[in-house]
Amino acid sequence: MKECVLVDGMRSANGRAHKDKGWFRNRTPDELLTACYDALFARNPQVKPEMVEAVYIGTANQVGVTMDLGRLGWLAGGYPESVAANTICQQCPSGMSAVEHAARAIMCGEGDIYIAGGVEDMLKVPMGMGAAYPKRVAEERYNLQDLMMGMTAEKVAAMWNISREDMETMAYWSNKKAAAARDAGKFKNEIVPIEGHDEAGNPFMVEHDQWIRDDISFEGMAGMKTPFKPDGVITAAMSSPLTTGACAMILMSREKADELGCSYTIKYKAGAMAGNDPTIMGVGPIAAIKKLVARAGITIDDIDVLELNEAFASQSLACVRDLGIETNAPFKKTNIWGGALALGHPLGQSGARLIITLNNIMKTDMKDAKYGVAALCGGFGNGNASLWERV
Ligand SMILES: CC(C)(COP(=O)(O)OP(=O)(O)OC[C@H]1O[C@@H](n2cnc3c(N)ncnc32)[C@H](O)[C@@H]1OP(=O)(O)O)[C@@H](O)C(=O)NCCC(=O)NCCS
Question: Which residues of 345-364 are buried (b: 16+ CB within 10 A; e: fewer)?
Fold first, then answer.
């Protein structure tokens, strides 16, 4: 089999999905996506768009302005019609799935150069828009209410005995780490500046993630309501916020990257998906990561860097504790530049964004790391994990 290396990845900043305050409220998701393509091709001039074998893009909700953005986003950017595209939906892991489809195609020898990534605009396409759940799932096998994301986060907190205090500590550190990474310029290599609008309507170049709360405090979080369940523990602070964002990366066979003179740090080693009870959807990464390390012939302890999506603090804590990786925030090797509680979680984008950030962490702060894992849970009980090895 061929080896698949990650040549480069770029993303938009993550904006609030808010009709008056969101920095990208006046932009369309295809514009954010093609801004990533434009930046990638500009930074890697030896890679021409017509050399791309195919495009794989993850989007969780493919309706309205996010319909088939794999193909339509490519065409909207003026890119060659001859390059085919596949828009992938696997709820939150959509972006990771897209990357893995491309990586596996490279390893199988189907092609040498692929674009993969993800996009979601949770303002213009809110979660669940247009959904019609099968009665046999939503009424007969389960109860629809129990499948809603916030309710699954509540159930995970109860089953894994995770306290509100520990989740607030995690939210605190996620924001602090993200702010520190932003201030130290760590995201500069991955965020492509795109024009947006501030709250007053003035245009400006958006270079930073909008959700990071510099003013986060334990006092502020203590009084917050629990929107999903009146007597629950999950607040907005410990939930990933509604977000708009896009990302894309160039994946290549190692020999093509060498032939073109492209540099790279990591290669795709293995992937794993695991299904679980959808009423505790957030714990999917536990089984997925166990499968992943077994498949790759390594152990959990061999994971040097973990980029784990923070859909909710409860599910992230359940995952890292159950796997024996971490106990409480601030973590040692998990989300060292902050996670989705602070950076935001544009559903179909995040799985690919985690891999872009993982690559940048392994290029800079964790230069001795051999193995990096990106993992996330997905609505209706999926868990995905992806292993990358330093080349
Ligand atoms: C939790 C959720 C319902 C909150 O939605 P919302 O009410 O629109 O959220 P906001 O971000 O505006 O937060 C609500 C309030 O809490 C405040 N808040 C949020 N985080 C805070 C923090 N860390 N400290 C203090 N206040 C905070 C906000 O400022 C806001 O206050 P305001 O109404 O006075 O402005 C929404 O973010 C959500 O559904 N998240 C989960 C998304 C999801 O399921 N994704 C898929 C995962 S698998």
Answer: bbbbbbbbbbbbbbbbbbbe
